[in-house]
Amino acid sequence: MTRLLIVGAGGFGREMYQAVMATPSFRERHGITSIAYLDDGTPTLLQAPIVATIDGYAKQAGDIGLCAIGSPQ
Prior knowledge:
This protein is α/β, with parallel strands linked by helices. It contains two helices and four strands.
């Protein structure tokens, strides 16, 4: 069981979510069973939940990350 954490829930993060969902072979290859976001803000219109802030995240077994921060300031 693998949870994919998309770091950044802005526009680029939402695009990465769509790309992952459009590529079942990627999800199957990595055993991804769920997707969530890490973000310090409160973006809206997300397809998956925000589970923690970036600094507040504590790694759990089976987590993998995908960095999707398009404006790193």
